[in-house]
Amino acid sequence: AQSVTQLGSHVSVSEGALVLLRCNYSSSVPPYLFWYVQYPNQGLQLLLKYTTGATLVKGINGFEAEFKKSETSFHLTKPSAHMSDAAEYFCAVSDGGATNKLIFGTGTLLAVQP
Amino acid sequence: GAVVSQHPSRVICKSGTSVKIECRSLDFQATTMFWYRQFPKQSLMLMATSNEGSKATYEQGVEKDKFLINHASLTLSTLTVTSAHPEDSSFYICSVGFRGSRGYTFGSGTRLTVV
User: Fold this and answer.
1) Residue-wise pLDDT tens for chain A (114 aa)?
2) Can you tell me the distance from the alpha carbon of A78 to that of A20, in angstroms, rounded to the nearest whole number?
3) Which of A9, A15, B25, B95 could bond B34 through an S-S bridge, CB–CB 3.0 to 4.6 Å?
4) Do A44 and B93 touch (CB under 8 A)?
5) Which chain A residues are Cβ-neighbours of B108 within 8 angstroms?
6) What's the half-sphere exposure (Cβ side, CA atoms, 13 Å) at B63?
7) How far is B27 from chain A (nearest CA, A)?
């Protein structure tokens, strides 16, 4: 079974500062890992994903994440926060095909201060 | 790319009535779809896996008699909330998952309010 833990339900950064959102996973098989963003009253938008290959994954809007198997982590970063980055971010894990279920973390609400 | 259409986007119903939510895959055939529920300011909780031509697989704690799922064709899955109560008010989202590295596509969600 898969599970995801997101440390920090709320993160606040200043505009221009580094964004770091933490995600740790648990999986009995090699995981597929995802980060999604959700703006208020909207659906989910995929930021990036890791399935196989290069462990540093670059996504949209300047976000990237690094898969670290030894640490069972998949933290999301962005060098410089913009006001438009304020949203809810979800880390998610799947087993890549056995059940193909996508399991979400509890989410991190990112606030960006001017 | 894969497109998933979910309808309606918003619905208000009276307590005790039933509501049907549709999830359509517009440009591909989906043998499996997933249904999630999201309460305000919370995460998405997987409710069930919808399987074309067979019974849905429900997650632990989800009432299968209350949340009826039908996946009668390769392009349509429906979720019916039966005898809705105010505590069923939530955001319901469907998804299609592709095997391998393609990932998932989500519908735009349905905001259900039971009054």
Assistant:
1) 789 999 999 999 999 999 999 999 998 888 899 999 999 878 889 999 998 888 999 999 999 999 999 999 999 999 999 999 999 999 999 987 667 889 999 999 999 999
2) 7
3) B95
4) yes
5) 42-43
6) 9
7) 19
